[in-house]
Amino acid sequence: MGPFRLDMTLAIYLRQGSCRVMIDMVEYTATAPCMVVVMAGQLFQLVTLSGDMESLTMLMSEAFAAG
């Protein structure tokens, strides 16, 4: 799947494993434990996931994230 523009905030807490993502066309490698946050309006693409990856994911509307 190609990159897509988010209309909400995405927060991914990696509990185990790793992943590679593209945010605004910049590639990042995330290795647990860590958090990846993608803000509304940014381009996002999931590139790869490790086989042992475990995560918690939260999606927040722009109104909710703004507080």
Structure commentary:
The chain has 67 residues and is mainly beta. 7% of the residues lie in helices and 64% in strands. The protein is built from 1 helix and 7 strands, in the order βββββββα. The strands form 2 sheets. Strands 1-6-3-4 form a 4-stranded antiparallel sheet, with no helix packed on it. A hairpin with a 2-residue loop joins strand 3 and strand 4. It is globular. The mean pLDDT is 93.
Q: What is the β-strand count?
A: 7
Structural class by sheet pairing and helices: mainly beta
Strand order within the widest beta sheet: 1-6-3-4
Residue share in β-strands? over 45%
Largest sheet: 4 strands, antiparallel
Discrete helix count: 1
What is the average of the pLDDT values? 93
Uncertain runs: none
Order of helices and strands: EEEEEEEH
Shape: globular
End-to-end distance? 31 Å
Assign a percent range to the helix content: under 10%
User: Any idea what the radius of gyration is?
Assistant: 12 Å
What's this entry about, in short?
7% of the residues lie in helices and 64% in strands. The protein has 67 residues and is mainly beta. A four-stranded antiparallel beta sheet has the order 1-6-3-4, with no helix packed on it. A three-stranded antiparallel beta sheet has the order 5-2-7.
